[in-house]
Amino acid sequence: MNRFFAMLSRMKYIDRWGLMNNTKTENISEHSLETAILAHALVNIANVRLGESLDADKAAVIAMFHDAGEIITGDMPTPIKYYNPEIKNAYKAIEKVAEDRLISMLPEDLRDIYRPVISAEDKTLERYVKAADKLSALIKCIEEVRMGNNEFLKAKESTEASICAMNLPALDIFMKECMPAYYLTLDELG
């Protein structure tokens, strides 16, 4: 019996931002879709504006699966995950075990297709996926602060600082040209 896809469908039950008081909960399924859309956009910006020749579709697929291991591990809060190098390295090992467990749920003839996207073996595209992941976090912070939830102010500041430190030109373009629209109301967007 192939359990992989049924297990992936459980992404909708894993909530993000567990330590934060949220006005709206966000699960890893929602987050993964948003991250895929953003990764696709960042790679397309890099290709069109910066002369890169990267696979935007593959970046989107990697982003769809980037948190799949959290079905097994749960969503570890960022302050804990990155508290010190020992915890960070231990968590990376746990993530690898979770990814391997998911891959083992696939029939053998499909494992080599999914392993590269679940394990993010393309380090160039992984950089864009990480940037998209940070953008998704920033968008969540913006939404929460716009709803009057000041609990997300510090997270917003630290996420913006992380984005600035990434030194990724396509990300800088997105921040300048696209991010301001996330502060608009529905009427203003229309």
Describe this structure in words.
With 190 residues, the protein is an all-alpha fold. It has a single domain (4-189), classed as Orthogonal Bundle (Hypothetical protein af1432). Helix content is 67%, strand content 0%. It contains eleven helices and no strands. The model has no long low-confidence stretch (mean pLDDT 94).
Q: What is the name of the CATH class?
A: Mainly Alpha
Ranges with pLDDT <50 over ≥5 residues?
A: none
Total helical segments:
11
Mean pLDDT: 94
Number of self-contained structural domains: 1
Largest sheet composition: none
What share of the residues does DSSP label as strand, in percent? under 5%
Write the layout of secondary structure elements.
Elements: H1 4-8, H2 28-50, H3 56-65, H4 70-73, H5 78-81, H6 85-104, H7 108-118, H8 123-146, H9 153-165, H10 169-177, H11 186-189
Helix pairs in contact: 2-3, 2-8, 2-10, 3-8, 6-7, 8-9
In short:
The chain is an all-alpha fold and 190 residues long. The chain is built from 11 helices and no strands. The protein has helices at 4-8, 28-50, 56-65, 70-73, 78-81, 85-104, 108-118, 123-146, 153-165, 169-177, 186-189.
Keyword list:
globular; 67% helix; 190 residues; mainly alpha; 0% strand; Hypothetical protein af1432
